[in-house]
Amino acid sequence: MDHTKYRELFWQDGYVVVRGFLDPRELQEIRGELGRFVEEVVPTLPETQVFFTAGAGGRLAVRQIHRMNCDPFFEAYQRHPKWLRLARTLLGEPVVSRPPVYFSKPPESDFPTPPHQDNCAFALNPPAGVEMLLAVDERFDEETGCLRYVPGSHREGLRRHVYSGVRGFALEIADFGPEDEAREVSVEMEPGDLVCHHPLTIHRAHRNRSTERVRSGFSMWFRGESTQVEAAAVEDYDRSARRAQLAGR
Q: What is the pLDDT of residues 161-201, one digit of tens each?
């Protein structure tokens, strides 16, 4: 797959969608491994690594899993050449991967994703990085809570973030308002599609209003080798994350 055509759009808008990134066989593999992980590994994980939410009928369901490289398959998968090749093309340099993350919005779950920029947590200087989110099982659309981006916001710097109280998204943009909403673009995806965004691109998602469909996504994150991680800023975010963890939301 030729990825060069995506680079210009990524830097122009702060995000780009790669349709059919995984072929049916590759998609079936990742679905199977995610199902195995949820069934076999999740019960062994601490509450700081896996978060749950109430879905349809009040049943608890997984909504986020962090540091999936604790499992041999996902430890190896974070170096998958297809993902690495795309990341290198978008950033124009060698890249370093972070552990994979699983995001899920179960049916009828009251769990919106607050507006934020990823660099409030990752603290990259310069902000040369890319998060990639794969649609796994169901269509990402307005009903299931697809991602919503503010195009070009990656060129406007890091906005002020405040504590959100949401586990997994501990900070949100303090002054996100009608002007931002007017610029938003919703990104709908079919299973196997991938959306890639810059660490300064403003994005959020509504809750899943569907009564049947799970909006599940598998995420890989890469930073350019040339960038540095500002440890003090990461610790500031981690304090907010620990506070949200204790609050239980």
A: 988 777 667 688 999 999 999 999 999 999 999 999 999 99
- What SS3 class is residue 142? coil
Q: Which of 33, 27, 169, 59 is nearest to 103 (CA)?
A: 169
- The predicted model scores a pTM of 0.91
Task: Give the rounded distance of the alpha carbon of 141 from its chain centre.
Answer: 16
Could you tell me the two tokens for 13? Answer: 């808008």
Position 226, amino acid: S
With residues binned 3-state (H G I as helix, E B as strand, rest as coil), the percentages for the chain, rounded to 5, are 35, 30, 35
Distance CA 127, CA 118 (A): 10
* Residue 97 three-state SS: strand
81-129 per-position pLDDT tens digit: 999 999 999 999 999 999 999 999 888 776 788 999 999 888 899 999 9
HSE, CB side, 13 Å, CA atoms: give it for residue 65. Answer: 25
Type of residue found at 104: S
SS (H, E, C) 192-235: CCEEEECCCCCEEECCECCCCCCEEEEEEEEEECCCEECHHHHH
Q: What is the DSSP letter of 175?
A: T
Tokens of 156: 């406007």
